[in-house]
Every structure is written in C-alpha cells, then in structure tokens.
Amino acid sequence: MIRFLWTVICVVCALFHLLVAKESVDEMMVARIKIQAFQNSQLMETLSYLTDVHGPRLTNSPNYKAAAQWCVETLEEWGLDARLEPWGSCRPGWSFEKVSLEMTDPFYVPVLAYPMAWSPGTNGDITGKPVVIPIDFDEPFDSLAYKSELENALILNPYFNESWYSETRPFRHDEDYLEQQAAAIDPGRPDHYTPKSDQRKQREKEFYDILRFFKNEQIAAMISVSPLKDGVIQVSTPSRWYEQEPDSYPWVVVSQEQGKRLQRMLEKGVDINLKLNVQTTTHPDTIGQNVIAEIAGTDRKLKNQVVMLGGHLDSWHAGTGATDNASGCAIMMEAVRILKKLEVKPRRTIRLALWGGEEQGYLGSRGYVKKHFGDPETMELGPEHELLSAYFNIDNGGGKLRGIYLQGNEMVRPIFSAYLEPFAYLGAGTVTAKNTSGTDHIPFNWVGLPGFQFIQDPLDYGTKTWHTHLDVFEKVIKDDVKQAAAIVATFVYHTAMRDEMLPRESPVTAAQE
After folding, report:
1. What SS3 state is found at 382?
2. Got the DSSP string for 91-146?
C-alpha cells in the first residue's frame, strides 16, 4: 500500500511538473539567430530596395507590382519557394508623374503639394485666385451661399483634422507604459471596425455630400492642408471618394504652414494667383496580389501545419512607405532569410505573406483568409483552418520590438514569455492581454485563428511618418529592426518546432462588428 501511495504521489508530481514546466526554448538556436541578425544582416539592403528603388507602392500601381516581383525573385534566391497569389479585385492602379503648385502673384512662391491617391490630373495648367471655403464639421456647411459661384474655381480648404496626432507622443515606450500594458486584464475590443455611431455616420455623409457639391459645381481643383505641423504633408484619400466618383476633380494637399499663409493673405485682401499642374495615370489592372513564400515542413505528421508571418507591402504615395510598412516586410523577409541561412528543418511549414491592399481595408489579408481559412461573415471554415498554428504581423513603424499583444488569448502568455526571455536585455519582454488593431492580423482573428501583432517603439511614426511624405528610409533605425528580425525568427522557429500548435481563442466574426 505504501509503495502504491508513493507511486501515485510520484505520478501526480510528474504531471504537475509537466503542467507548470516552462516552454522549451532552444537557446543555442536563438544564439545562432542573433549572430545572423546582428552581425550578418541584409535587412537594410532589402529595405533600400523596397523604398529607394520601388517605393512608393500604392495598391495595384506599377511600383507595387515591381516591388512584389522583386520580393519573389529575392526570396527565391534565398532558397524559398515563392510566388504571387491573387487575392481579389480592387480599384485600378494609379500613379502620378508630376505635381506643381506655385503662387505666381503678387510674387513667386513654390508650394510643396502632393495629390490625393486616385485623383485625376489637371490636363495642363490651372490658374486663378483661390477661393477659401473652410469645411468644419463643428459648423453646418451652407452650400446655398456658394451655389453657382464655384465653376472652374480653385478651392482652398484650410480646415484640417487634428485626428490622433500629438506632438507629445513618446519616441520610445517607457517602463511605466510597458508595466501598465503587462498588468492589463481587459483586452478591450478586438479590432477598430466598431459599429459607427449615428453621429459618425452623419458626419461622414455630410463630408461626402460636400465633396459631391463641389463636383456638381464643376470646380477646377481642391487644395487642402495637412493635419501635421512642421511642414509635414500627410496625404492618403477619403476611403471611397474616387472609387465612387472616379471622374471627380483634382485634389492636392499642402503643408499646414503654407496653406494657412495663403488663407491669411486672402483674408487681408491680397490678390493671389496660383498655378497648379497635376499629371496622373490610372492603370487598368484591378487584380490585387500578395507575395507568398515558404520553407517546407519536414515532420511527417506536422508538415501540413503552417506558421505564418507577414506585413503589408503596399503603401501610400507621398513618401516611400518605409515605416508603413516596408520596414515590417523587410523584418519578415530577414527572419525567413536567417532561418534559411541556418538550414533549419522546421517541423511545420513556415509561410511568409506580404500583403497588398492593407491601406484600403486589409484587402490582401482578408482575401487570403477567406480563400484559405474561412468566411468571417458566414463562419463557414475551410479545411486549412485547422492547420494554422499562428500568424505574426509587424506594421507599426521602424522601432524595436518591446513585446507582443495576446489579443485576449491568455493561453499563449507563458509560451510567448519564454520566447521573449532571451531578448529581455534588449528591452523586449512585455506580454499584454490587450488587443491591438488596424492591420493584417485582424482578419485571422475574425475567423478564430491566432493572429498577433508585436508591441513596437513608436519613434516618430505618429508625429512625422504615418502616411506622410517623410515616410522614408532614414526614419528606420538599423539596430532596432535587426533586433525585431531576431525576435520574429525566434518566435516563428519555436512555434514551428513545438509538439502542439498554439492554443486558440474563440472567433470574433466580422458580422459581430
């Protein structure tokens, strides 16, 4: 009896040990990954090709297609199986060949401007005195005051949206912030596509009604000002304007300082004459493509299972899309390059995805998820749904990684904590229950798949580079992205080598938004 009791106790102790055992991390492999990432990096060279050579990379533009093809060829040179995979249809590609805005009277001043994406050209020079029409949602817009007065007018709209920009945003996350993140209990909503309030719906309708009024009045062009100070021009496109109104007027954005100067001069009665010339091209191809590349799994039982990593390859058009998101793509490409260089034999297949159409609403990743894993509207799941262990994403600038968001999935906390431990001395150790949103892990979450985004130092992402003409190579910090590539390679490798797939949380469907 005593021997039996001792046997039971030993078995219970052994089971308890297994339950609380720390996640296994191959420290020798991590050390080899660090050597490749820190001492033999090719990341900045990859980044330079994506930005200096191929950027900007607007969805379906010639630059995007050239960059995607270059990624396929480069990944193949590194020994991966790579291809372009269509994700669906989007608006036609677009590019601009010229934009010139000048004040010619009462004296000459060059005005830096960028066109809104998908804006038509001006068909030569447009000249004239600008008409100031502030569009401010705090005040009703009286269209009758301008009815039949604006034909061929150059509209100067000095209203700008402060949105989420702040001059006080931290350059790096401090320890207090990271401790708060680590201590979070409530993850919050899983994505930023929350139901629109009646007020928001009304403001959006008013905005498009105003734009449509200007179109019906047959204005010559619209000149708006950037929401950022210090000469930074933030420019994208109202989400569906040129999709709904493709034959609308040319629209450019100027710096806040230059736009407000023009406004003040006009208010003082100064006769101003502007000359605007915009040349753009619409490209007919509407089929969007993602870049897909693989390191094949080797385990007989697990090789059909997949660990994915990725970021979005498309960008806006004013800068070269360096921090949003060529840096994320270069980090992910460097992670698979490192693993291939080390000749790893992953048990599961490692799959890289560089997405198109993220800036238009996760289009590339949504199309991929629907094709391979399931429809978030109907929750009809495909056979590949059960084969994905995890998806890891980067899309928050050019700073170092500080940890990872769990998206509410507490079951992976001890796993990710172990993965991060070898990088604690580099400032990466925070694991937070919180959800983060706004990028390509979200479509995976919608169908119940473990999709994760890393916590990343903001640098000047929210103050200088997000969708601006300063989103360029120089804004990415070399040592930071090297650290990020090493961490991603470690996460992907160990997830591919585990006996079990990562545990899953319940799905949040798009229909529940």
Report:
1. coil
2. SPEEEEEEEEEEEEESS-EEE-EEEPTT----SS-EEE-EEE----TTS---GGGT
Say how many Å lie between the first and final Cα of the chain, rounded: 60
Reported as a single tens digit per residue, the pLDDT across 306-361 is 999 999 999 999 999 999 999 999 999 999 999 999 999 999 999 999 999 999 99
Q: What dihedral angle (degrees, nearest 10) is formed by the CA atoms of 412, 418, 419, 422? A: 160
Residue type present at position 251: W
Q: Which residue matches tokens 């949105």?
A: 163
The string of pLDDT tens digits covering residues 459-480 is: 999 889 999 999 999 999 999 9
Locate 234 and state its tokens.
């933030």
Indicate the length of the chain as a whole number.
Answer: 513
The model carries a pTM of: 0.92
Residues 183-225 pLDDT 10s: 999 998 766 554 455 676 777 788 888 899 999 999 999 999 9
| Domains of the chain, start order | 24-90+286-512 (3.40.630.10), 96-174+188-283 (3.50.30.30)
How far apart are the C-alpha atoms of 440 and 354, rounded to whole Å? 10
CA nearest neighbour of 168 among 406, 414, 394, 462? 462
- Tokens representing 233 are 């021009």
